[in-house]
Amino acid sequence: MSSLSASSEPQPTEHQSTEHQPTERRPARRRRDGFVPEPDRTDLAVRVTNLSVTYKTTFEKRPTLKQAVIRLGRGTRSVRRVEAIKNLSFEVRKGTTLGVIGANGAGKSTLLRTLAGILPPTEGHVETWGHASTMLALGVGFNNALTGRENIVLGGLASGLSKHEVQERADEIGRWAEEGSNSFIDRPMRTYSSGQAVRVGFSVGIHMQPDILMVDEALSTGDAGFRTRAAKALEELRQQSQAMFFVSHGMDSVRELCDDCIWLHQGELMMRGEPDEVISEYMQFCGLDEGSNSEEM
Ligand SMILES: Nc1ncnc2c1ncn2[C@@H]1O[C@H](COP(=O)(O)OP(=O)(O)OP(=O)(O)O)[C@@H](O)[C@H]1O
To answer: In ligand 1, which atom is closest to the CA atom of 217?
Structure first.
């Protein structure tokens, strides 16, 4: 399996700031934003400190009849805030496979996007040691007007590979994505089925050879052939990577794959511990007993 990113020694990355470089064991210095990083810890893959993420969306408020007359039918613009993650702190040691569970809207995908550097923290800090790759559902970041192959090439160029390297890898990534299916890689992505889009996103993710691997329900979409190949590729990557985050509603998959688990509820950390214990508490919280079917929660 080849790499889309130039290989380098894992260095801690602190999202939101370029000042923090705790590669040497030096006394921690206070930064301009007041954050004092702890001295470097070689056993850590990820550290999350007081992380909060708030989405802000603007929407048009429906006007009252009187306002509609005064404003000629136009509504007023309002801002809606959603606190998706609230003051979250935890550390993940190298070698851990961390399950992330919780109800719809709990903040699981938001956490993964923030760890992957796709979303900036609103408050707090995320530090990652090594290159993080994400296999989020439905290929976040793809341009749907371009073909799968063009998206792969653009992504490769953006990550600093030469044109020749990118071309070579694009062929390999495309072949992996299409295996066992009809050919779609040279069609615009807007024409893809959801399973085909996931195949491309997943293939890009596994060919990045990440140190920190994030998987968001990637296995649940796709046909049986794809799921078998994807599970095999994930298991291989899990053995090579420093840490894996696995977001899932499939409790059996979390039990099978993970050796540590966090449960989020409305953006807050409810519990962390052994997957069996955390899943059991979560099921009780949902009003289900141990005997209930926990495959999809
Ligand atoms: N782009 C966005 N803009 C505004 N609000 C958002 C956005 N994305 C997510 N949210 C909100 O943030 C909260 C957390 O969403 P998130 O997708 O992280 O939850 P989740 O635990 O992954 O849910 P699910 O299990 O349904 O996938 C939800 O209330 C959601 O509505």
So the answer is: 27
User: Ligand 1, atom 31: nearest CA belongs to which residue?
Assistant: 105
Question: Cα(50)–Cα(37) distance, rounded to whole angstroms?
Answer: 12
Question: Would you kindly state where each structural domain of the chain is located, as residue ranges?
Answer: 12-17+41-59+79-285
Report which of 130, 207, 117, 133 is spatially closest to residue 166, judged by C-alpha positions: 207
Which of 244, 253, 234 is closest to 295 using CA atoms?
253
This prediction has a pTM of 0.76
Å from CA of 170 to ligand 1 middle: 31
Residue 122 has pLDDT above 90, yes or no: yes
The arithmetic mean of pLDDT across residues 89-99, rounded, is 94
Site to substitute for ligand 1 among 57, 108, 286, most atoms within 8 A of C-beta: 108
What are the tokens at 72?
């000629």
**In sequence order, what E strands does the chain have?**
12-15, 44-61, 76-93, 96-101, 123-129, 132-135, 212-216, 243-247, 260-265, 268-273
Q: Say yes or no: domain 12-17+41-59+79-285 is CATH 3.40.50.300.
A: yes
| Distance between CA atoms of residues 133 and 55, nearest Å | 22
Output the pLDDT for position 275. 96
Give residue ranges with CB within 6 A of ligand 1. Answer: 55, 57, 82, 84, 102, 104-110
Distance from residue 113's CA to the centre of ligand 1 (Å):
11
Residues 70-79, mean pLDDT to the nearest whole number: 73
- Longest distance between any two alpha carbons in the chain, whole Å: 67
State both tokens at 70: 């005064």
Residue for token digits 């006394």? Answer: 27
**Which of 56, 100, 109, 266 most suits a substitution to test ligand 1, by most atoms within 8 Å of the C-beta?**
109
* Cα 293 to ligand 1 centre (Å): 25
